[in-house]
Amino acid sequence: MEAEHLAPRYLHELSDGERQKLMIARALAQEPALVILDEPTAYLDLPRRVEVLRLLANLAHTSSRTFLLSTHDLDLALKVADRMWLMGENGAFYTGAPEDLVLSGVFDAVFSTTGVRFDIHTGAFDFSSNDGAEVAIIGDSAIALWTGRALKRRGFRPVYLKQAPAPITYIEPFSDGWRLHVDGETRTFQSIHELLQGLEAIYA
């Protein structure tokens, strides 16, 4: 657990993540075959949540112990869980490897509601609207993907293309900014914030 260095310190001196480590260490000291944890990452910031779940996953794979935990942190659960149990409406119960639940449509059916859906391609929840203006983005680089996320957040519908389309509105990310092409005219922006302002001015 790498928690020995915490022994000389008082409880009130420990961070939430360190306390969680000690609680898990105390449970493991009893050498149980099954460890049940209720929201072990509650109240932790993202780095500490990742640390705790990664620790549990490593222990599960390197020891003979099974860890069963409840969590609302679905993004991280998808990354570290070997098996998931999902409770749907009317008590419907689903279990399987996270990837099987996603590919079978179970994950989307259980968690998607009006205005929210699970995107099978990104492995994340999408709560953007689908009725905004369509804007093409050239390329599939990290800059292009994050530009698309920003557009969706503001109600646009990004479409990723490998090359410039016919003369419609499209965005061309490059190393030092973004070029916005509209009806044959080109404007350059140095940040996504400025780009969004420019788009919203066009479609106002």
Explain what this protein looks like in three dimensions:
It contains seven helices and eleven strands. It is α/β, with parallel strands linked by helices and 204 residues long. It has two domains: 4-124, Rossmann fold (3-Layer(aba) Sandwich), CATH 3.40.50.300; 134-202, no CATH class. The strands form four sheets. The protein has a five-stranded mixed β-sheet, covered by helices on one side. The protein has a two-stranded parallel ribbon with strand order 1-2. It has a two-stranded antiparallel sheet with strand order 3-4. Strand 9 and strand 10 (177-182) form a beta hairpin. 14% of the residues are buried.
Helix content: 25-40%
Number of separate structural domains: 2
The fold-level CATH name of the largest domain is: Rossmann fold
Q: How would you state the average pLDDT, rounded?
A: 84
Please state roughly what percent of the residues sit in beta strands, choosing from under 5%, 5-15%, 15-25%, 25-35%, 35-45% or over 45%. Answer: 15-25%
How many β strands by DSSP? Answer: 11
The main sheet orders its strands as 8-7-9-10-11
- Compressed to H and E, one letter per element, the order equals HEHEHEEHHEEEHEEEEH
Largest sheet: 5 strands, mixed
List the keywords:
35% helix; five-stranded mixed β-sheet; alpha/beta; 2 domains; 204 residues
Structure summarized in a few sentences:
Helix content is 35%, strand content 25%.
Element layout with pairings:
Layout: H1 16-28, E1 34-38, H2 46-62, E2 66-70, H3 74-80, E3 84-87, E4 93-96, H4 98-103, H5 106-111, E5 117-119, E6 124-126, E7 134-138, H6 142-153, E8 157-161, E9 170-174, E10 177-182, E11 185-189, H7 192-202
Parallel strand pairs: 1-2, 7-8, 7-9
Antiparallel strand pairs: 3-4, 5-6, 9-10, 10-11
Helix pairs in contact: 1-2
